[in-house]
């Protein structure tokens, strides 16, 4: 499954908002420095979709706020 994700780093609280078009807006506490926000994003998505972190890959937008994330349900 592929999801479009809009990341908002340096937020006061962590939360995931599902948008009407199926994309996600993810509020992260981490700053976008040294991959910390990407690590937090992967952890939050693994909790939401109940899959191990290794099943989630950022396909594009590694250093952007707009990302395309692949979530593999079977590994």
From TrEMBL:
GO terms for cellular component: cytoplasm. SUPFAM superfamilies: YggU-like. Residues 1-32 are annotated as: Disordered. Transmembrane segments: none annotated. Pfam families: DUF167. Belongs to the UPF0235 family. This is UPF0235 protein PI95_008510.
